[in-house]
Write a structure and sequence with these properties.
Structural class: alpha+beta
Radius of gyration: 20 Å
Shape: globular
CATH architecture: Orthogonal Bundle
Distance between the termini: 33 Å
Strand content: 15-25%
CATH superfamily: Transferase(Phosphotransferase) domain 1
Number of strands: 12
Number of domains: 1
CATH class: Mainly Alpha
Number of helices: 7
Length: about 260
């Protein structure tokens, strides 16, 4: 799977990492392209189902603006495979990248407070109205919107001087263009529902979820888990972005659940 942006049909691509322009609607969009669609099976349909649930959730819920939605989806056939593509609004940097730009590798407390408020609004929507556990909350999956100035600038540069390209194994690869800095940023949004799990199916869930450093005690102990795993996930993430300390549950085969 690759979170890359590529052309739709005959539309031109202006950057391999940020977005493209849809000439017919005069708007920039971003594509999430699954390279190995055939191997993901039902996971592809699960992610689309999550986006449908978000679309069907109450419009007035403040969490609607705190989660990334999908504008459209389609499939592209190539000689080697069929690829699922999701169309999103373009977003900018992640909380992880912003933290790494800070010399002390931490986020300021006011930024963390605002990020948490947005994150809990998103989880309230997902848990209460969409009946979804995200299961993969981390800094890299919290992205900030930005104004379209950098995309417009990139578009104009591409029209004036197209990016170099080459053909490799029957496909065309474009050289990515370095992007500028947006004039303004928006509120953070929770993204990437590829690992999300619907919990309104009446089943007992014991799936092995979450990265190791964010894994909740229920998952480690192989006991049924529910929406609370996302809250544990958030707590672990905050300990990293605030004090750069990893909080994790550890399990010993003879002593049971160990230190946190």
């Amino acid at each position: 799977m690759a979170g890359t942006r590529s052309p739709v049909s005959s539309l031109p691509t202006f950057d391999a990492d940020l977005g493209l322009i849809c000439i017919s609607e005069c708007r920039h969009v971003a594509l999430k392209l699954y390279i190995q669609s055939d191997f993901l099976g039902s996971e592809l349909d699960t992610e689309l189902d999550v986006y449908r649930r978000i679309e069907d959730s109450p419009k007035h819920h403040p969490g609607r603006s705190a989660v990334r939605s999908v504008l459209d989806s389609f499939e592209v056939d190539t000689p080697s495979a069929r690829h699922r593509c999701l169309v999103h609004i373009p977003l900018w940097e992640s909380a992880l990248n912003i933290k790494h730009r800070n010399s002390i590798r931490r986020l300021p407390q006011p930024v963390i407070a605002f990020l948490l408020r947005r994150l809990f609004l998103a989880l309230d929507l997902l848990h209460r109205d969409c009946h979804i556990a995200h299961t993969d909350i981390k800094e890299a999956n919290i992205l900030l919107p930005a104004d379209s100035s950098v995309l417009t600038q990139c578009e104009n540069q591409e029209l004036a001087k197209p990016s170099p390209k080459k053909e490799v194994d029957g496909g065309v690869i474009y050289l990515s263009r370095e992007m500028g800095t947006p004039r303004a940023f928006g509120a953070p949004m929770l993204c990437d529902f590829g690992s999300a799990v619907p919990l309104d199916d009446g089943l007992e869930h014991r799936e092995d979820i979450q990265p190791d450093i964010y894994r909740s005690p229920e998952v480690i102990l192989d006991i049924p888990w529910t929406y609370s795993v996302d809250i544990w996930n958030v707590g672990c993430m905050v300990s990293i972005v605030k004090v750069n300390v990893q909080v994790r549950a550890e399990y010993h085969p003879f002593l049971g659940l160990g230190r946190l």
